[in-house]
Amino acid sequence: MDFSVSSKDATLANGQRAVITKVVGEVDVYTAPRLKDKLLQLEREGIHHIAVDLTEVGFIDSVGLGVLIGGLRRARAGGGTVVLAGPNPRIRRILDITGLSSAFTLAPDVDGALDALAKESSGLAQGPAQGGT
Description:
The chain has four helices and five strands; from the N terminus they run E-E-H-E-H-E-H-E-H. By secondary structure, it is an alpha/beta fold. The chain has a five-stranded mixed sheet, sandwiched between helices. The longest helix is centred in the middle third of the chain and has 16 residues, at 62-77.
């Protein structure tokens, strides 16, 4: 499967700017640097509300998880966060086993992720959303 990372702008319900970063393929030691570059680019552009669409990710290794953790830390340092959208059961299990499902807000789809970003950016979130697939 080919790997790609793309982003598109979104406006949250509270009017703040966000970005949906769509990841397609396997996120591993070979492809994770491309995801990292995209997340660093967003940080340089001052974007700290990020929904990472994982609906088309079939596998993620420890390097890919590290990239997501780094993105989350940078987003939080800038007053935002990263929400993971649509992780399949396999990815969700990896997040659960590693304890990362409690570090990230997980949403069943991109719309849910944008809603979670809006709540979190407004200070209304009570903790990670339970969702996913």
